[in-house]
Amino acid sequence: MHKQTIKTSTIHYDVIVGEGLLTDIAQFLPKNYENVLIVSDDVVEKLYAEKLANNLSHIKNVNMTSVPAGEGSKSIDKYFELLTEAINHKLDRKSLIIALGGGMVGDLAGFVAATYMRGIDFIQVPTTILAHDSSVGGKVAINHPKGKNLIGNFYPPVAVIYDVTTLRSLPASEIRSGYAEVVKHGLISEESFFNEVLKVDLTKPLDPDVTVEQLQKGIAVKANIVEKDERESNIRKFLNFGHTLGHAIESEMGYGQITHGEAVAIGMLFALKVSQENYNISLPYNELYQWLAANNYPLMINWPGPDMLIDKMKLDKKSENAIVQMVLLEEVGKPSIVNIDDHNLRIQLENFIRELGSL
Ligand SMILES: NC(=O)c1ccc[n+]([C@@H]2O[C@H](COP(=O)([O-])OP(=O)(O)OC[C@H]3O[C@@H](n4cnc5c(N)ncnc54)[C@H](O)[C@@H]3O)[C@@H](O)[C@H]2O)c1
Ligand SMILES: O=C(O)C(=O)C[C@@H](O)[C@H](O)[C@H](O)COP(=O)(O)O
Ligand SMILES: [Zn+2]
């Protein structure tokens, strides 16, 4: 078991990573709670909710609820339904919400916790590779049809309890999706970490020791940034590498048509391309492209038109006065935030789409 404490100006919380933590979760609760609502999706609920609940039998009221699996549930409708569940189960300001699942559940249940009675405690119990990223740092949100995560808050959990044995049941598509964020953590932090990640072959069974070590490294990269800039005034934007285009693709194609990680993977390729042009340097674009292709990331997608994508990129939360901001790399491990004017963005995007090809 490995414990890392995240210390921001407003809160300290532990991120505990280990095998079999679900059956031992009671010891990691930071307080005594009398009323707990476990929120999951209908796939994860069947796999792990009972195991979790069994370990909370000492708590007076433990209830469980779930939303349909998939990005479509990160919606205002499901958010409202969960608030109603919280009311029906008589959650009060001393109650706890446990988000059991991947980033979708974590973001959604976290936003419910952030807003129910102006905020109650919540714990992240991540079950995907991607959630090594989403469970840490306190960004909680739901999507608007017009843009990703447009409705949300910064609302850190009181603990993150990451039972990595749950990762064994992940389908290949979700291993791939999650690994995109591990690649991101490598690219924005250290070349050696990035190179290590590119040695992983996602088409073969993962080596659990390597995976857990890389997830812990990713968490450490994120923790280091979030501790200095929790509310994204400056360096937290680095964690958005690949997301300016990635989020635009997700919302323009329709939530759930492509996974978050797959869209971010394409976004990272674009960000590398723009970085190379912008700084007149060479970056491992080809290496990343080849790794993504070899690991079956969808790189030939049914591209939405560039105008639609640019409109979505302007809605990104980093934009100011409708000027698109992208996270670029001056070198691997050295991110920077750059305004990209519309004309340049359009040319770069059209060239990129042409080069990548479409269906
Ligand atoms: N808050 C943040 O900082 C942050 C960071 C990155 C991503 N995100 C958000 O996270 C979301 C993506 O998260 P995700 O990739 O975990 O998706 P997800 O939560 O939708 O899970 C993906 C799929 O895997 C299934 N699943 C989850 N755990 C499983 C397990 N152990 N075994 C078998 N199946 C399992 C789910 O039912 C779902 O079908 C997006 O909404 C993205 O915007 C947020
Ligand atoms: O934690 C962050 O900060 C990130 O940007 C991490 C991203 O991987 C994540 O997808 C996040 O939800 C994106 O945030 P947004 O502010 O662009 O919605
Ligand atoms: Zn992300």
UniProtKB/TrEMBL annotation:
It comes from the Bacteria. Its main location: cytoplasm. Residues 178-319 form the 3-dehydroquinate synthase C-terminal domain. The keyword Aminoacyl-tRNA synthetase does not apply. Binds 1 divalent metal cation per subunit. Can use either Co(2+) or Zn(2+). It is found in: Cytoplasm. One of its GO terms (biological process) is amino acid biosynthetic process. Its cofactor is Zn(2+); NAD(+); Co(2+). The chain crosses the membrane at residues 96-117. Pathway: Metabolic intermediate biosynthesis; chorismate biosynthesis; chorismate from D-erythrose 4-phosphate and phosphoenolpyruvate: step 2/7. It catalyses: 7-phospho-2-dehydro-3-deoxy-D-arabino-heptonate = 3-dehydroquinate + phosphate. One of its GO terms (cellular component) is cytoplasm. InterPro entries: Dehydroquinate_synthase (IPR050071), DHQ_synth_AroB (IPR016037), DHQ_synth_fam (IPR030963), DHQS/DOIS_N (IPR030960), DHQS_C (IPR056179). Keywords: Amino-acid biosynthesis, Aromatic amino acid biosynthesis, Cobalt, Cytoplasm, Lyase, Membrane, Metal-binding, NAD, Nucleotide-binding, Transmembrane, Transmembrane helix, Zinc. Its EC number is 4.2.3.4. One of its GO terms (molecular function) is nucleotide binding. Zn(2+) binds at residues 181, 243, 260. Residues 66-176 form the 3-dehydroquinate synthase N-terminal domain. Belongs to the sugar phosphate cyclases superfamily. Dehydroquinate synthase family. PANTHER family: 3-DEHYDROQUINATE SYNTHASE, 3-DEHYDROQUINATE SYNTHASE, CHLOROPLASTIC. This is 3-dehydroquinate synthase. The gene is aroB.
